[in-house]
Specification:
By secondary structure, the chain is of the alpha/beta class. It folds into 2 domains: about 170 residues, HUPs (Rossmann fold, 3-Layer(aba) Sandwich); about 90 residues, Pantoate-beta-alanine ligase, C-terminal domain (Pantoate--beta-alanine Ligase, Chain: A,domain 2). Helices cover about 35% and strands about 20% of the residues. It has 10 helices and 9 strands. The strands form 2 sheets. A 6-stranded parallel β-sheet has the order 1-4-3-2-5-6, with helices on both faces. Strands 7-8-9 form a 3-stranded antiparallel β-sheet, covered by helices on one side. Strand 8 and strand 9 form a beta hairpin. The radius of gyration is 19 Å and the shape is globular. The N and C termini lie far apart (about 50 Å).
Length: about 280
Amino acid sequence: MEVIHTVRDLRRRLAGEGAVGLVPTMGSLHEGHLSLVRSARTLASCVVTSVFVNRLQFGPGEDFERYPRDLSEDTRLLGAAGCQVVFAPDESEMYPVPQRFLVEPPELQHELEGAIRPGHFRGVCTVVLKLINMVHPQVALFGKKDYQQWTLLREMVGALSLPVRMVSGETMRADDGLALSSRNAYLSPEQRSEAPRLQRVLRTVAAGIKAGAARGDLLTAASAELAAHGWQVDYLALRRQSDLAPPQPGERALVLLAAARLGGTRLIDNLEVLLPEA
């Protein structure tokens, strides 16, 4: 496995490769990232994993400076997972001049996660577009834990006619149901014990929806349960899977999305819901 820090060296390394797979990350890797790498190995002859903490997607007061960084450990894990190339640029390589040209996503960027983190998806889409242009992959893989991000990136690739196949990976979880996340490292032991409640309440809401209960009441009760156990709920919403628009009557493929703070740690999760045919 090679660790490469510049676009020039990256392109030289990838010249002549057949199918290239890209797994974009911000490092601090966990099994969710590594599962994408292993999936990429089945789809491409050369797997490139980028490791770059992207300042553009962090807002004022967010955790850019303290976001966990350990390139040595990341490269060890990636080598074991079968990654062939780690692309780890610094900021001056990724943004050699101020990034005045930005990708402007559609209105979905201002909803849900975007309502809490203004400009976040502009930064995500911009860096992913740059990475695709730098790596020229035939396939790019993203986890579905960041469901809104996946939806917007998939739409961006189609809207801009980018020659890359987008593949999603299922959310990887700990044994108790907590979605794996680099930010889980911020949780205290007591908070870590409480954190799986977020997925549990989503499952309770999903069961109620399938049973025909009033959706608004279910979401209100779920938010109240989280608040009663010390959470600060940013949103808990039901949308349709295809584009995250509010579901219309009779639509079956839905998704629950949630974000909430536990102490100083902000966690997100989701749960796909497929309703039975009428």
